[in-house]
Amino acid sequence: MPKKNSILARICVYLVGMFLAAMGAALAINSGLGISPISSFPFILSLIFDTYIGIFVALQLTVFVLLQLLILRRDFQWIQLGQLLSSVIFGFFVDLSRFIIGDFFIPSYFGQLFMLAISISLLSSGVFLYVTPRILPVSSDGLILALVQKVPKLNFARGKILLDCTILTFALLSSLLFLGTFYGVREGTVLAAIFVGRLIPVMRRILSPVLRAIGVAPMEE
């Protein structure tokens, strides 16, 4: 039977991971080099409907839960519907992060690149941290885990790249169709789509000793 302090540590790691990922998404918006791929489609929808991005982040994550149900079918565990709650929490964290960061911006293209690099690092570390405790993944990553379960030779990092690129495609098409141009999608968005997934193994090596020290088993390869 797991110790109470171990359960508390896992919950804390889970929430910290979601918050770091949300901060990474907010920082990407402020960098001006393009929003993070996972938030690109909700961002475009928030511009189209002129409302908070967190609402569409939560809606997108809810759709990902339904896709898991379609992919896994009988293998879908109904407790995973709890991802709907994590979707709402993550959407709240995104809006909270944007409030905290405010109008923070580093002038010059080098400053924008630095902000983007921090954003990608936060997203990678955040994803690793909130998947690791094996509580309830944010549904975007639950969808990746479902694909990994059903698609031979697909690992989590590659699945992350695949999902990011798919969402980015929807964002590009929606922006062009409804807004007439590519809002929020620039070189930074493409770089994040490529490197967030690739950096997860790096963050695993960096953060695993800390997780073991607090009694949380790191996510496997």
List low-pLDDT spans.
none
Return Rg in Å: 17 Å
Order of helices and strands: HHHHHHHH
Q: What fraction, in percent, of the residue positions are helical?
A: over 70%
Portion of residues in beta strands equals: under 5%
Largest sheet: none
Count all strands and give the number.
0
Shape: globular
What's the overall average pLDDT, rounded?
86
Structural domain count: 1
Structural class: mainly alpha
Number of helices: 8
- N- to C-terminal separation? 25 Å
List keywords for this structure.
221 residues, mainly alpha, 8 helices, globular
Characterization of the model:
The protein has helices at 4-31, 37-49, 53-72, 83-101, 109-131, 139-150, 156-179, 187-213. It has one domain. The chain is mainly α and 221 residues long. The longest helix has 28 residues, at 4-31.
Summarize the structure.
This protein has 221 residues and is mostly helical. The protein has eight helices and no strands.
List the helices and strands and how they pair.
Blueprint (H helix, E strand, L loop, with lengths): L3 H28 L5 H13 L3 H20 L10 H19 L7 H23 L7 H12 L5 H24 L7 H27 L8
Helix pairs in contact: 1-4, 1-5, 2-3, 2-7, 3-4, 3-6, 5-8, 6-7, 7-8
